[in-house]
Amino acid sequence: MNVALLPPWVAGLAPLAALAAAMLVRRAHVRHVEPQPWWDAAFVALTIVPLAAVVAWPGALTPARAALAAGLSVALLAHDPRDLPQTEVALKITWVLAGAFALSWAGDALLALASGSARPREQWPALALALDPYALWSAALSLSLLAGLVLLGGAPFHFWPADLFHGARPHLAPFVAATLQLAGAAWLLRHLDGIASFPTAAQLVRSLLTLAAAVALAGGAATLGYQWRPERRVGALVSLQGGLVLASLAAAPMRIPFAGYGGLAAWAGHLVLAATGASLLSHFLPAAAGPAERPSVLFRRHPWTGAVGGYALLSLAGAPGTPGMFVWLDAARTLADLRHPGLLLGVVLAWLAAFGVAANEIRRGFGAPDGSPAPARSVPRSLRAALWAVGAALLGLLALWMRRT
Amino acid sequence: MTAPRWFVPASWAGAVAASLGVALLLLPGVVWAALGLELVALAFWLWARSLPDRSEQLARWAWLRRPPTALWLAAALFLALPELRHVLAPVPLPPADATFSPPALQAAPPPMARDPMLLLRTMSSLAILWAGLELMAALPLSRPFPDLTGPARPVGAWLTALLPVTGFLVLWRQAGLWATAPLAREIATLALMVAVVLASLRAYGRRSLTASLRWLVVYDSALASMLVARDVLPGGIAALLWLGAAGGRLISLAAELRGKAARRGPGLTRLWRLAGWAAGTSLAWPLLNEMGFGGGRFHPLEFGVLAVPVTLANALWLKRVVEAPERRAMARPEDRSPRVSRLGAVATLLAGPLALAWAWWQGFEVSWPGALFAFVPPALAWWPVRRLAPAPGSPPGAPLPGGTRDFALSTFRAVTLIERQLAAAIGGVARALGAPARDLHSGDAQEYLLFLVGVAVLALLLPVLR
Question: Under an 8 A CB cutoff, do B445 and A96 touch?
Fold first, then answer.
């Protein structure tokens, strides 16, 4: 990972802050059920530590470890059989990932058969000798990349981030999403290692990734407005982040995306922070209310906390003045520098859709005051503290990125 | 983290946001302009959500997020793309004293071959143009908004006139970014010509003076934007001419809402009538000259299309600004409205001619026939004043039988109806094309697996078909 612009310890701070927020969220959810709510929250946070470690050091991910991380994520989702929505999400993700891994491993096996090596760096020079038919290695290459595309969650595979944020608990969903998307990026990067030595394959990969990125951005932006619940809209925004990784890879298949801002570690750190805040906020947003409805309890009792949650949502959408803006800008500049006008247009249109939906969500959250007294029951303090922790971490990230650029 | 102890009323919060937004529009950067328009839209949202009919008001002003979105699009493209000047800057001319040498004749590559990003640069310029035009009611989607009062009750009738002001500020301050793009000047001229004609017709068709004044602000802003778009005068002078004309209407609109302060007494009324006419004439005169006599020859069509609304708008001003009936036996001595109104009238009277003098000082020149002919349409406006002046006893602004107002009204309605139907048809096609995306965002696990298999088959076929 290229962390030349950031000190190495910074990459670990964002997952730490997100982990603290996750513990606070868990604490808010269990306070009426468990006899020792803080112990329970700390224990649950401990189970997320491996995912946080993946977010902090994505460079350690190999294809095998990526599959392992995906398996761990599914196991965490499925650990509580009483939680039916979360178990259903685990089932859906397992169902899709198992198929994707099976197809990609079949592609890997075919590539190994054609080149005589299982290492990507050794495969390309062997394939460049043109001893094997084009149809064989090209089909094998396409299949081998499929798991990476599914894991990144860009459209048309954007259903799993939406399902995840809709069904899974808010302390877990952001970590699972970031882990799976990092696994997808690592899968693609490892499979493309050394592909420059075989220009025909590099050209084919560039075409495939361009097509996948275009579909991810256009499809993600188009379906963003059709999501019927705020949690699913957060999931769709997370899927657009996968589209950004794809777009960066399509422009430069062998370059680590977002290298100018700390690489994938910093990108995933921002993702997990922004998604935590946005996911928490989405539980207080009206599902189907019009813009003239009165605001929910968070916005009536604690409007500043609601504004902090709105900042996280805006950062996920890449709105100006948020750290997310740098992520989107980096992808756009990469595409501009490498002359990809079509994908650049896709990134800009997806950004506009994301920004518009996020702004609309915040407006709906604040609603229209009708003069009625605020509800007596307040939002749990630990939940509000989680939102403030996420907001502070995002502001820190913004300051760091602004100073570094 | 608890509820704030202090509470800012929506009216104040909106006023602060709107003021800050307009101030940001005066800055040169497109990001500041986008932020400014976002603040203006926020102000309207804050005002609208605090009203009893909030549902209707929020829906009515929801379109105000479109112009800032267009500016954000432009800002994003300008930030992402390399320096703009390499593509859109004019070709540098040799110094005046250099020896003339004929240019070498060689086939130029098509623009897209020179720079693949040209399309995106053009798009960003057109996005700025879109934002400015939409705020000036020069695009079909927002055309009827000056008919409506704004969402803040005490100043609502005045507030709507703020939007064309923001539109002009966007086009004026960002002219360097949009006016040099291919086709931008032509598109702007066409849209603004239509806006000028429709605004003058609508102003003429409305019986209420406040509504007419709002449409006249649209008319003034569109004329001034044409000065910027066609580069008739330097931007600062065009802005000063606009300030005189539109500023005068805004002052008189505010005065109208404060007890018809611009029409109290015969002297003040005459002063306002002259000031508005002078400011409007100063604004239209250089444009009429350029449109009618630009390039050293007469363009009858352009001159005619512009002359009619100019005459109509000036005649309307002279006809409508009539002395208000005084219901009070004695004026209150502490009432300073007439003095302030007189001051506004004098400023309006002086702004236009002074701006033209400044332009002349800076080298603006017109031919004598062009100058005279360009003065005719606004001068003609004095003629119908006596004929259209209301008969004694009839209320001011009453329609004449079989009148031209009906014609103006029906023309405006027909055009806007066609525009709305066209926009609805385009929207319907877009929705139909996007409908499959609705089914893409959910499903059960079995469908996901089938979908995955489908994509895998596609992945197998794509390289072979490539």
Answer: yes
